[in-house]
């Protein structure tokens, strides 16, 4: 769950790609049982009344200590170093240089081990808040340590002085078994955690709360209690979903269907001139199968069956926006995490966050195209075990391709990015001749800053999906990950290719495929000869 994020946000799934993705591989594995607690925490933020009552239960001893710490100077006594970790000693030395260094804002990753239930997290957060800290990322998991209920990973921004004071205060709290500062970019590449099987995606459900209707005053549903309640109802369905479950059916209201019809008809108007051939082909198949019609919102389960039939991609309900690491990891398993709620009816052609219409009309048709599906999966595979910096680059590539990509088709520029296919305003802007169009080159695209509040000033144009894949593969091979990951569709597992046995197995499979290829070629030659 993201408490705040200053860097990103807009309209698509990965529009909320958090550049500061703190999902440290060593602590990124969270048990699915926590979903309800996550949801309860998010709901606490939604509901002012609930939040007020939480505040009243704050541990006042801790609060008082933080308040008193605000006026106190950090100790320069060397004795205070006793029991400090290396990172804390370095922090203390950095803070002691001068007043400016002391007041400099430091981003720190804290690992807190809670003795009590998840509710005690609220007390800790209050202490951080009182210490003028800003929590930018928060995750939790059941602890494996005896006597500790939860491990919490929190990234906070606060002055060095306040951070040091915070560490001392929290160490005195009986709520916490321990507290540790992790060094930045501390990623354990020897034994990274990432989902190894499609069922592990049950643990990849870390939501970002930005642009939720309850939290954003500019959201069209901000003051609509009925809409907010509907959003929660649909989010709850996703929270309950587990790998292997049947995808629940949503009974969409007449209001929601009306919004779908408006956007669907708009897509029908724009598609012939501006959408890429692969999209048009998949759209027609969906129409032929009676899944795409103007008067009915397709069910996620029907879209799932359609995609499974064509490329093996599957869909699972998501309660909201996922972190980039989780979202990309899903793609590695040919799984697309989809919201199921519909944008507010007063704003059919714009939504501040990705809704089901964006997923269905923007993303899903192309996932039925084998070449595009492969490209999506390769982006996902490259993310498994990647460093935070690499996740940011992969997210940026995702942004400029799967969300806002353009491609060439018979000398013309067509759209294939979901943020263009499902949002006609940006689509018309992209092909207006005003923005700059650059050739897709992953090493350059990956570091291009992008616009997430308004229309893009720059788009990248791929020669074709095949060309984009070739370039992407070459670029990915230069990334830092010291192992290769392959997806085994038979077992639905992501396999690390780092042993002779695994390479032998792969070689055996490839030899079998080559045998099929040779036999088929020979038969074709005999038939034609
Ligand atoms: Fe999207």
From TrEMBL:
InterPro entries: ACT-like_dom_sf (IPR045865), ACT_dom (IPR002912), ArAA_hydroxylase (IPR001273), ArAA_hydroxylase_Fe/CU_BS (IPR018301), ArAA_hydroxylase_sf (IPR036951), Aro-AA_hydroxylase_C_sf (IPR036329), Aromatic-AA_hydroxylase_C (IPR019774), Tyr_3_mOase (IPR005962). The keyword Heme does not apply. Residues 59-84 are annotated as: Disordered. Residues 179-525 form the Biopterin-dependent aromatic amino acid hydroxylase family profile domain. The keyword Iron applies. Fe cation binds at residues 358, 363, 403. Its main location: other. Residues 109-184 form the ACT domain. Belongs to the biopterin-dependent aromatic amino acid hydroxylase family. This is Tyrosine 3-monooxygenase. It comes from Aphis glycines.
């Amino acid at each position: 769950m993201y408490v705040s994020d200053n860097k990103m946000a807009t309209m698509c799934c990965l529009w909320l790609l958090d550049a500061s993705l703190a999902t440290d591989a060593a602590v990124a594995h969270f048990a699915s049982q926590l979903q309800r607690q996550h949801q309860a925490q998010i709901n606490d933020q939604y509901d002012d009344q609930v939040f007020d009552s939480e505040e009243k239960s704050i541990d006042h001893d801790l609060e008082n200590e933080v308040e008193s710490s605000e006026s106190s100077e950090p100790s320069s006594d060397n004795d205070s170093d006793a029991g400090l970790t290396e990172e804390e000693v370095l922090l203390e030395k950095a803070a002691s240089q001068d007043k400016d260094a002391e007041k400099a804002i430091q981003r720190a990753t804290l690992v807190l081990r809670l003795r009590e239930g998840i509710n005690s997290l609220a007390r800790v957060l209050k202490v951080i808040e009182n210490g003028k800290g800003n929590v930018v990322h928060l995750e939790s998991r059941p602890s494996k340590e005896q006597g500790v209920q939860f491990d919490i990973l929190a990234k906070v921004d606060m002055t060095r002085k306040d951070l040091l004071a915070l560490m001392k205060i929290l160490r005195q709290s009986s709520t916490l078994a321990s507290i540790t500062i992790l060094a930045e970019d501390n990623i354990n590449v020897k034994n990274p955690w990432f989902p190894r099987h499609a069922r592990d995606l049950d643990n990849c459900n870390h939501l970002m709360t930005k642009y939720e209707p309850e939290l954003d005053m500019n959201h069209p549903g901000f003051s609509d209690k009925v809409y907010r309640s509907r959003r929660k109802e649909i989010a709850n369905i996703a929270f309950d979903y587990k790998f292997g479950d049947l995808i629940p059916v949503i009974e969409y209201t007449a209001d929601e269907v009306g919004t779908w019809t408006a956007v669907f008809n708009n897509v029908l108007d724009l598609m012939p001139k501006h959408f890429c051939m692969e999209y048009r082909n998949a759209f027609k198949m969906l129409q032929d199968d009676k899944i795409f019609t103007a008067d009915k919102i397709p069910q996620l389960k029907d879209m799932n069956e359609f995609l499974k039939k064509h490329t093996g991609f599957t869909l699972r309900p998501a309660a909201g926006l996922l972190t980039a690491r989780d979202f990309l990891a899903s793609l590695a398993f040919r799984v697309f995490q989809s919201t199921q709620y519909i944008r507010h009816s007063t704003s059919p052609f714009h939504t501040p966050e990705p809704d089901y219409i964006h997923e269905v009309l923007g993303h899903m048709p192309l996932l039925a195209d084998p070449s595009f599906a492969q490209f999506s999966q390769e982006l996902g595979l490259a993310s498994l075990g990647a460093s935070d910096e690499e996740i940011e680059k992969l997210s940026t590539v995702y942004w400029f391709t799967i969300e806002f990509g353009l491609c060439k088709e018979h000398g013309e520029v067509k759209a294939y990015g979901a943020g263009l296919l499902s949002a006609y305003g940006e689509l018309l802007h992209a092909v207006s001749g005003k923005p700059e169009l650059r050739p897709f080159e992953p090493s350059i695209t990956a570091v291009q800053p992008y616009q997430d509040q308004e229309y893009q000033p720059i788009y990248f144009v791929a020669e074709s999906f095949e060309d984009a894949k070739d370039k992407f593969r070459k670029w990915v091979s230069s990334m830092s990950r010291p192992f290769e990951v392959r997806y085994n569709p038979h077992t639905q597992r992501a396999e690390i290719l780092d042993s002779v046995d695994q390479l032998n197995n792969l070689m055996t499979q490839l030899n079998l495929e080559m045998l099929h290829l040779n036999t088929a070629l020979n038969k074709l030659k005999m038939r034609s000869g």
